[in-house]
Queue: 2 jobs
Job 1
Amino acid sequence: MLIITGLLLLAPLAQAGPAAPFALFPVVGGAHFTDDWGEPRPGGNRHEGTDLMAPCGTPTVAVVSGTVSLDYGARSGWMLTLRGSSTWYRYIHMNGTHGARSAFAKGLRDGSRVKAGQVVAYVGNTGDAAGGACHVHFELHRGNAVMSPFRWLQQATILQPNASDPATKPDASSGVTLTITGSLVWATTGADGRIVVRVTKVVASDGTAIDRTGLVALRAGAASLGDLQAGETVSVVTTAQAPTSERLDLKPLAWTAASATRSG
Ligand SMILES: [Zn+2]
């Protein structure tokens, strides 16, 4: 009888391990990530966090309840620090399309109290991530120690965009435009107008790298085609849109042209 009682008491203790420092995933809808803790970085540094890859403008949430501070640094770009009761967190490279306004959730200030799950900032590529893929560099700290958040991220609950809470949708004000250069294949105007370009180069206004060639079809929108002829080299600038992954893959008609001009 004593032995059975002992086993029952010991079993949960043996499985418990250290308590999770956070249980919510920082990026709404999830993100791609690998265990990149400790990887070498320029200047002899080691990577002290986990990079969570998601399109620019994707909302991020407080992983615990706490107090935030908002900063800008040359390396970090727009950065949010979240202080919980025993641990603290950093969200680095937040969206800089419109400065602090696109980096942090509306109404948030230094010292604001936030609840776990509340939208606090938007994914970007500011600081030394400029020109690279949009992501959050996420750090976990306890006192002066920085720890890998990887195993906790793997277990964390992912919040999905909530139709009744606009803050959880990609920030429309952080929309990007694309400048698509290439050879005009064909174009039609009007309500169902299309512009088809054989692409040589795509540049996004927020610096997101888009490596894409081949044919891309856009809605003609309000773009005037003037006397552009098939075969000419053109530069098509799109309207600003939230940069979803589908749009960044240049899915057919995912973008609308704002202008189309002869290039070069
Ligand atoms: Zn990083």
Job 2
Amino acid sequence: MTTVAVLSLKGGVGKSTTTLGIAGAAWARGDRVLVIDLDPQANATSALDAAPHPFTMNDVLADGRPGIAAEALVSSGWGRGIDVLTSEEALAHRNRPEGPDSATRLRITLQGVAEAYTLVIIDCPPSLDELTRNALAAADRALIVTEPGYFALQGTDRALRAVDVARDTFNLRLRPAGILVNRVRETLGEHRRHLQTLRDDYPSLLVGMEVPESPEIPEAQRAGVPIQAWPSPGARIVANAFDDVLDVLMS
Ligand SMILES: Nc1ncnc2c1ncn2[C@@H]1O[C@H](COP(=O)(O)OP(=O)(O)OP(=O)(O)O)[C@@H](O)[C@H]1O
Ligand SMILES: [Mg+2]
């Protein structure tokens, strides 16, 4: 069992897309997958076509009891073998510290729940606040998402440092899983230059971690189906890219 937190400092770089892409890759392999939506925007919840959910991660974190997340599990409309812990707007209230065990609440509520899955993947909000700290406390791998643009690259370094701090303060198991570069257009000289900068700065963290820009990605998300099930050659290329990322995560 692996628990992966997907994070970035910058908004809109593709955290939810990455979460869904990797979850879809594992699901297509027949793995049991749990997606935890920790973003109050609830984008992953809707793209996963989650079943009606009277309890969300907001209720789970407010309650805080060991294993209570089991009560909030719902299935994804994608098919058998993939479950969701859903989000809602009110989850934004949990994005600041509350009490001494504030950062480890998610980890505690998942006790005895996460073990039933091959892959648990957590979609974080675009900040390093309390919800992301909870994800980093519950995960064993942290996957940082960026784009081949100047501002996105600046955020990568800060995100890596946040992973280091999380490991040193509350989660000794945590390791960086890599840096995923999303929306790559190899034909753009600017993208190639930014990719080269990342390869030079983080030689060990970029292996097999590039996802191309592809119009099929938002289409599949709107339709609530995994990119792996979207019938087009472009979607096939994206699915293969996420397959490579999953291989790296599971290695
Ligand atoms: N490789 C890609 N090709 C084309 N569109 C993409 C790609 N990656 C993401 N998108 C689109 O860009 C938008 C932002 O992506 P996404 O929601 O995954 O980012 P995010 O980091 O989760 O954003 P937020 O910080 O708001 O949570 C979405 O509409 C998504 O469909
Ligand atoms: Mg998102």
